[in-house]
């Protein structure tokens, strides 16, 4: 019997359907659930630049403004780099690397942070106290003895306060908590209207979001250590 064009087309369609069914049967059921492609290696490297800049800046006890002055890069730009909102140009990265005392390769190496476990601050190299610790302090000589970072959240300040020295007119308010230890001399601390007089060896812990101020009302200088933990 002669095969008509209609019968040939039907046979061809049946053959295609059979081939497709056979191919589908060989495909695993979870083929559509394949893992998404991994991020390119360069994305991981670029994404690590900001955290490394922030980590080293904090290890040096530098504020954004202080690093901006050292590097001639605006504080706003540094903030964006640290947050990952901006990828620095090679010129910007060179300036930041020089200001932070690190080779540029440190910031573009794909290895994870390999800094020391502990942070050793020598007395002769003690960084300045954080700008928000006591911005209007008078008669006070202070330096940081611990600097918060991505790994270590607590910070601390050592202060030598002359008689009459104080935190100034501004009453500090910040998140977290503080712990004050009088190593020598005495200190009067006002926390939201509650007044505490601390003598040598006394300590005082309080929530830092309450308005607080302090003054050396004694006749000799006081040495005081502050620990603070940002909330």
Automatic annotation (TrEMBL):
What domain of life is recorded for the organism?
A: Bacteria
- Entries under Pfam families matching the protein: Cupin_2, HTH_3
Alphabetical GO CC annotations of the entry are:
cytosol
Instruction: Cite the entry's keywords alphabetically.
Output: DNA-binding
Low complexity bias (residue ranges): 11-26
**Compositional bias segments (type: Basic residues):** 1-10
**Molecular function GO labels:** DNA binding; DNA-binding transcription factor activity
What the entry lists under SUPFAM superfamilies is as follows: lambda repressor-like DNA-binding domains (SSF47413), RmlC-like cupins (SSF51182)
All copies of the HTH cro/C1-type domain together span 53-107
> Is Transferase among this UniProt entry's keywords?
no
Q: InterPro entries, from UniProt? A: Cro/C1-type_HTH (IPR001387), Cupin_2 (IPR013096), Lambda_DNA-bd_dom_sf (IPR010982), RmlC-like_jellyroll (IPR014710), RmlC_Cupin_sf (IPR011051), TransReg_Diox_bact_type (IPR050807)
Annotated region Disordered: the residues are 1-39
User: What PANTHER family does its record include?
Assistant: HTH-TYPE TRANSCRIPTIONAL REGULATOR, METHYLPHOSPHONATE SYNTHASE
Its recorded name reads: Transcriptional regulator
